[in-house]
Amino acid sequence: MTEIIELGEFDIAVTRKAVKHVHLSVHPPQGHVTLVAPLETRLEVARAYAISRLGWIRDQRDKLQAQARETPRQYIERESHYLWGRRYLLSVIEREAKPTVSLDHRRITLAVRPGTTREQRAQVLRAWHRTQLHGVVPELIRKWEPKLGVTVTGYFLQQMKTKWGSCNHRARNIRLNTDLVTKPKDLLEYVVLHEMVHLIEPRHSERFVALLDAHYPTWREARVELNALPLAAQAWQG
């Protein structure tokens, strides 16, 4: 059950779980605030803790609101697009043939039929993005399965508005945000590993953090870098 603490301009969602410590988070893109507290925590205690961290909450919200945002893509000539953290210029070719996407060291070339709409161009490029991810994700899973001692039954690619990834602990599969194709590959690897560790420990517990520390010591830096990159046109949560 979630309860709401009203604190000035903030509505803080309080959830009680089987954790040892209070976890306070400010989420992109707008800076909504959540507080996870141990099961026995009284609401007054949670409120007092939130008040003590009010300055920090405001700082985090201000940083999020000042963060760069990508403008919606128009899929037109010489527009900037990103693949694996690198910027490319889009080249659009109209021809009577099946749509294709190709890549060289400077450009992403999108070939479409004459009169193709913005959304149709977007669909072609999104399909190509999925192909790029399918070429990388299985290798990362195979790399980490023996190191973690887990087996991933499958993975899914999905446009997500609030997460970079998720894990279904019971079905033993993971789900990844397709927007990761625009980020550096090491950040994709961090998200894949993060979700695979959830196959061992479903919660963001001390054990979970210890596992990340043991297998990917720079995961905190990766998380900061991922959340510092420009936000996509849609909202998401790192």
Structure characterization notes:
36% of the residues lie in helices and 26% in strands. By secondary structure, the chain is an alpha/beta fold. Strands 1-2-4-3 form a four-stranded mixed sheet. The protein has a four-stranded mixed sheet with strand order 5-6-8-7, with helices on one face.
The global form is: globular
Number of H/I helices: 7
Gyration radius, in Å: 21 Å
Q: How is the main sheet built?
A: 4 strands, mixed
Uncertain segments: 233-238
Number of strands: 11
Spatially, the strands of the biggest sheet line up as 1-2-4-3
Can you give the helix content as a percent range?
25-40%
Strand content: 25-35%
The helix-strand sequence is: EEEEHHEEEEHHEEEHHH
Please report the distance between the alpha carbons of the first and last residues.
Answer: 23 Å
Mean pLDDT: 90
SSE class = alpha/beta
Task: Please name the defining characteristics of this protein.
238 residues, alpha/beta, four-stranded mixed beta sheet, 7 helices
Task: Give the structure's gist in a few sentences.
This protein has helices at residues 43-52, 54-66, 118-134, 137-148, 185-197, 206-215, 219-228, and strands at residues 2-7, 10-17, 23-27, 32-38, 80-83, 86-94, 100-103, 107-112, 154-158, 165-168, 173-177. It is an alpha/beta fold and 238 residues long. Helix 4 (137-148) crosses helix 5.
Topology:
Elements lengths: L1 E6 L2 E8 L5 E5 L4 E7 L4 H10 L1 H13 L13 E4 L2 E9 L5 E4 L3 E6 L5 H17 L2 H12 L5 E5 L6 E4 L4 E5 L7 H13 L8 H10 L3 H10 L10
Parallel strand pairs: 2-4, 6-8, 9-11
Antiparallel strand pairs: 1-2, 3-4, 5-6, 7-8, 10-11
